[in-house]
Fold this protein.
Amino acid sequence: MLIVADENIPLLDAFFGDIGEIRRVSGRTMSAEDVREADVLLVRSVTRVNRTLLEGSRVRFVGTATIGTDHIDLGWLKENGIHFSAAPGCNANSVAEYVLSVLSLYAERCALGDWSRLSVGIVGVGNVGRELAEKLGRLGFSVKLCDPPRAEREPKAAGTFVDLNEALTCDVVSFHTPLTRDSAYPTYHIISERELAGLTAKQLVINAGRGEVIDGAALLKRLDQADAPLVALDVWEQEPQISPELVDRVWLATPHIGGYSLEGKVQGTEMIYRAMSRFMGLPTRKQAGQFLPEPALSKVSFTSAADEQAAIQIALRSCYDPRQDDARLRHAMRAPADERGAAFDRLRRDYPVRRECSSLKVQLKGTSKSLQDSFRAIGFKLKI
């Protein structure tokens, strides 16, 4: 059996090596010729899986090691009897931790002694938005949830959700929607000139969902106007050919790596391994945890003298500091215009190992219960 896979999916040999022959190819440039003899196709979000790619091939199973499916022609796969599986929620915690790290930087910029004074509007409350909301709620933040499809499906929870306009009044607005154009509630360019005009310099906008949710041209125009909001973008329109002008004007710019923790990546591989094994009637004996290496940093320690906010910032940024990715992306945008797309893809392909907070043991000596609860809410392992 031939398994054609995006070369950037981790642990391919560990999970699939004893099932069939693995052929690694570039996900961005994957062609019909690459997959013609394949029985199984494993991709990420950079590969369009549709009739053009698969017609005439032997592929009977497609797995994407991502939470999103807007790169997959689900209707065509179903019509042609090709089984499909995604990895919903695999990197939800990774993206939530990305947002927490951005929030810690923003609170520091605003000279807030207590970051939970910030109100946060979460637009899109699926796996990622729900994970983020739970962490923020446990940390004491005021959170407003906006998800019209869920509000419609869950009438008993009507009071749980607010409309977009109300979410946009929060100090921080974080986007975690899928990209939809033809649905009852399309998300394509839901943030454009009108919405951006209502935002102020006292607000932060974070997009770690889909780049096309925000109208990039309108955003670029707004950022050149007075009283513009701060913006942190991890996702962009027209990836990998993103706008260097927009990179230059946003406060924080990262190359679509919010979900790129090692734990999130490996969990995505495990999920499509399990789905493929079920489809083929094979036993599932492997789990992501058995392949995770020892983290480079395994323990930090705080005493009773530690300031709560400072301790949280130190621990969070020990695991992940977005400013490093920001610097790499800004440097990549200095390349000649015809090389920037490849430079963006290299940042993702060669992404350094990033571990989630659960990999770090936090030792607390004589600290307050409040600090202990905060560390638990974020997901750190505690030793008291």
Notes: The chain has three domains: 2-86+261-291, 92-253, 299-338+349-383. The chain has a mean pLDDT of 96. The chain is about 35% helix and 15% strand.
